[in-house]
Design brief:
Blueprint (H helix, E strand, L loop, with lengths): L1 E2 L5 E2 L2 E2 L3 E2 L30 E2 L2 H7 L7 E4 L9 H11 L5 E5 L9 H7 L2 E6 L5 H7 L7 E3 L2 H9 L7 E6 L1 E2 L5 E2 L14 H6 L2 E6 L19 E4 L20 H16 L8 E3 L4 H17 L3 E8 L1 H8 L3 E9 L2 H9 L3 E3 L2 H5 L13 E4 L3 E3 L4 E2 L15 H7 L2 E5 L3 E2 L2 E2 L1 E2 L14 E4 L2 E4 L4 H9 L4 E2 L1 H12 L7 E10 L5 E8 L1
Parallel strand pairs: 5-14, 6-7, 6-10, 7-8, 8-9, 9-29, 10-13, 13-14, 15-16, 15-19, 16-17, 17-18, 19-22, 20-25, 22-26, 27-28
Antiparallel strand pairs: 1-2, 3-4, 11-12, 20-21, 23-24, 26-27, 29-30
Length: 513
């Protein structure tokens, strides 16, 4: 066993994963790798990329046992491509596939049966919830899942650590030569940013569409030069499933109090100024922070430089009001974001690598002044868990959490002090997702805790009259109200490996009992 930089005990080798490179710190591990490249191809005049169906795609490539098939998640819980592709694999008797799906949602429940029958024996993803996450937590999958960050997945693909044999890209619009975008057609989903690395580095790229347009398609998100085949199916997904949880500002008075305090933290830190850059999530509390920041920006008559990340209608409104000059969009969280990226030239589509990869010449998260994040748990060292629930069952993943926390000048976690009648502050989080060195402030309804690494920030918040407490004080308040949580019983088998964005191992998830 090894002890990594945040004190987690990690095996030197994980069966089904391989040798472990231990997490040494958020910026301690240099790249030490080269970018990879797919084989060079040639197309002759008159060659056609259009195929009659998914089975013909499988035969033409051909797809064989043991391959890695990749997919993007821009349709979120409305995705229809993953299930259709894997059903085709099952019909053709293909086994032992690895699925590299950027995020897994309840709609992907058929994966569980593919685990049981051996069609799929490995999963590589950045987030998972629903029946698949439950099954993985109970040990149904043959190999441990690799849980990456959004930037870490892009890095792993670019550097050949996640080698993709066939990328199946759900394309809301395509032309017969393989130019595709996410902003036209009846199933428009917005940015296709998470599919960009797959298209660039996979051995074979298949555009799966339900809307063919005449050549040349415009605009082009992924060009014909990277697409080998185009197949038209009846429907690739339901855009209504894109909506992430709630995209409305919370009405809960406790969460509104937390959001108001978080906005005052941003103001006290001196960030409400011209050129301000900002990322927030799609949850009700996060949107409420954006609401209060919006009011502050209007009052101060300032213009921010850009908003980043998963984009909601609330951020679109701030762009259209002139509060931000640009939106940098790797993923749309609602249909307003889809509308905006299709029509506003200041709403920019970027790749996952541009957004958050730690190993390039500079990703967008490094330009963030502030990010607002959530937490399932946080410990007294400010390490955050957004992977497992209080029962040890997987219910999420880092996504862009660790990436944005590392890049932003000010990283704020907003959370109720009690979650489901359990304290959120622990001596040690069950599963470490984001290292505490990259978290600056915790905002709860009972007060604000500042990471000891940010002593100057703590003085700024105190000077502004904010209710600053030690994180241990907040922990004691929570335990006085709800008691100390019991230790979660877990099995010995490792069902998931939590990679940090640089490819080192931050933690492992053991089988839930």
């Amino acid at each position: 066993m090894m002890i990594n930089a945040i004190g987690r005990e990690i095996p030197e080798v994980v069966e089904g994963y391989g040798p472990v490179k231990s997490f040494a710190g958020a910026f301690a591990t240099p790249p030490g790798m080269q970018r990879q490249a797919p084989a060079v191809k040639a197309a002759r005049p008159g060659d056609s990329k259009l195929l009659d169906g998914l089975e013909e795609v499988f035969r033409r490539i051909p797809v064989r046992d043991g391959m890695t098939l990749s997919f993007h998640h821009h349709f979120r819980n409305g995705d229809g491509v993953v299930n259709q592709v894997l059903a085709t694999a099952a019909r053709l008797g293909i086994k032992n596939l690895k699925v590299a799906l950027s995020s897994v949602f309840p709609v992907h429940a058929p994966l569980v049966e593919h685990f049981k029958t051996g069609v799929v024996t490995a999963l590589d993803t950045n987030y998972m919830s629903g029946p698949v996450a439950e099954a993985v937590s109970r040990g149904v999958l043959a190999q441990p899942v690799v849980l990456r960050t959004h930037g870490g997945r892009a890095r792993a693909i670019e550097c050949g650590q996640l080698k993709i044999d066939v990328a199946f890209i759900a394309a809301p619009a395509a032309d017969p030569c393989g130019n595709i975008n996410g902003v036209t057609g009846p199933t428009a989903c917005g940015s296709l940013g998470y599919a960009f690395p797959d298209a660039e580095y996979a051995d074979h790229v298949v555009a799966v569409t339900d809307h063919l347009e005449a050549y040349p398609l415009s605009p082009v998100s992924i060009p014909q030069t990277r697409v080998d085949y185009v197949v038209k199916i009846e429907r690739i997904g339901d855009p209504k499933g894109i909506v992430s949880g709630t995209t409305r500002i919370t009405k809960d008075p406790v969460q509104l109090k937390i959001a108001d305090t978080a906005a005052k933290v941003i103001e006290a830190a001196g960030l409400i100024r011209d050129g301000f850059s900002f990322q927030t999530g799609a949850g009700g509390a996060s949107l409420a922070v954006a609401h209060f920041v919006r009011q502050m920006m209007k009052k101060a008559r300032i213009t921010g430089s850009f908003a980043l990340g998963g984009i909601t209608g609330h951020l679109v409104e701030m762009l259209e009001e002139g509060l931000f000059k640009k939106i940098i969009d790797v993923q749309g969280f609602d249909l307003e974001a889809v509308r905006s990226i299709a029509s506003n030239p200041n709403h920019l589509e970027v790749s996952a690598g541009f957004y958050a990869s730690p190993f390039n010449a500079g990703c967008a998260v490094n330009q963030l002044d502030c990010v607002i994040l959530g937490a399932t748990e946080i410990d007294t060292d400010f390490n955050v868990n957004v992977v497992t629930g209080s029962d040890g069952v997987i219910m999420g993943g880092s996504g862009g959490h660790s990436d944005a926390a590392a890049g932003a000048g000010l990283t704020i976690v907003v959370a109720n002090l009690l979650r489901g009648r359990l304290p959120i502050i622990m001596d040690k989080v069950l599963t470490a997702t984001t290292p505490g060195e990259t978290i600056d402030v915790l905002v709860t309804e009972w007060g604000v805790a500042v990471n000891p690494r940010r002593a100057e920030l703590r003085e700024q918040l105190l000077a502004a009259g904010l209710p600053v407490k030690e994180i241990g004080e907040l922990k004691a308040i929570a335990e006085k109200m709800a008691g100390k949580p019991k230790e979660v019983p877990l099995g010995s088998r490792i069902v998931a490996v939590v990679e940090y964005r640089d490819g080192t191992v931050l933690d492992v998830v053991r089988q839930a009992k």
